[in-house]
């Protein structure tokens, strides 16, 4: 495991199983913890040139840079979103249904707007920007760094 965010997440559990390269690439599974398959998502910058990540937002991937189905359609049972104090784990299917309700305009835009589909120039990806505070309104499990690190 080389991804720093995945290592931080795994360290919060007594045991974990790292996904195979194929599971990671095609099924969008990073690891299994407590018999749950998880795809781990780190905090991201809003703009590439930003100095720091933005804990107030997360990106949802509907189509990846290769033009294949994005991680929201993967086989992971849970998506673990990194926050400033740990992670929130959300059932992937619940998240997908919520996205279908929140993102009603199916036209892909070339600028970043909340709850709109966005495509980066020169890439095949389709992503959407969502607020962390809205993710926290969904049923979730909080995994805190406090007491675990």
What does the model show?
There is one protein chain. By secondary structure, the chain is an alpha+beta fold. It has one domain (4-144). Helix content is 19%, strand content 28%. It has four helices and nine strands; from the N terminus they run H-E-H-E-E-E-E-E-H-E-E-H-E. The strands form two sheets. A six-stranded mixed sheet has the order 1-2-3-5-6-9. A three-stranded antiparallel sheet has the order 4-8-7. The chain is globular, with a radius of gyration of 15 Å.
Secondary-structure map:
Layout: H1 4-10, E1 17-18, H2 21-27, E2 31-33, E3 36-41, E4 57-63, E5 78-83, E6 86-91, H3 92-102, E7 117-118, E8 126-131, H4 132-135, E9 141-144
Parallel strand pairs: 3-5
Antiparallel strand pairs: 1-2, 2-3, 4-8, 5-6, 6-9, 7-8
Helix content: 10-25%
- In the predicted model, the low-confidence regions spanning at least 5 consecutive residues are none
Principal-axes shape call? globular
What class, by secondary structure content? alpha+beta
Strand content: 25-35%
- Strands of the widest sheet, in order across it, are 1-2-3-5-6-9
Termini gap: 18 Å
The tally of structural domains comes to: 1
N-to-C series of helices and strands: HEHEEEEEHEEHE
In round numbers, the mean pLDDT is 93
Number of helical segments with 4 or more residues = 4
- Rg from Cα: 15 Å
Number of strands: 9
Largest sheet: 6 strands, mixed
């Amino acid at each position: 495991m080389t991804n720093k965010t995945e290592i931080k997440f795994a360290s919060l559990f007594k045991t974990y199983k790292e996904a195979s390269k194929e599971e990671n690439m095609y099924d969008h599974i990073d690891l299994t913890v407590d018999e749950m398959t998880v795809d781990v998502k780190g905090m991201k910058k809003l703009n590439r040139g930003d100095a720091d990540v933005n804990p107030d937002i997360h990106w949802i991937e509907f189509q990846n840079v290769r033009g294949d189905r994005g991680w929201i359609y993967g086989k992971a049972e849970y998506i673990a979103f990194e926050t400033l104090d740990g992670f929130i784990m959300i059932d992937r299917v619940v998240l997908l249904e919520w996205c279908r309700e929140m993102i009603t305009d199916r036209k892909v835009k070339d600028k970043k707007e909340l709850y709109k589909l966005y495509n980066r120039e020169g890439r095949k990806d389709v992503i959407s920007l969502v607020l962390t505070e809205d993710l926290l309104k969904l049923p979730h499990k909080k995994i805190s760094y406090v007491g675990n690190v």
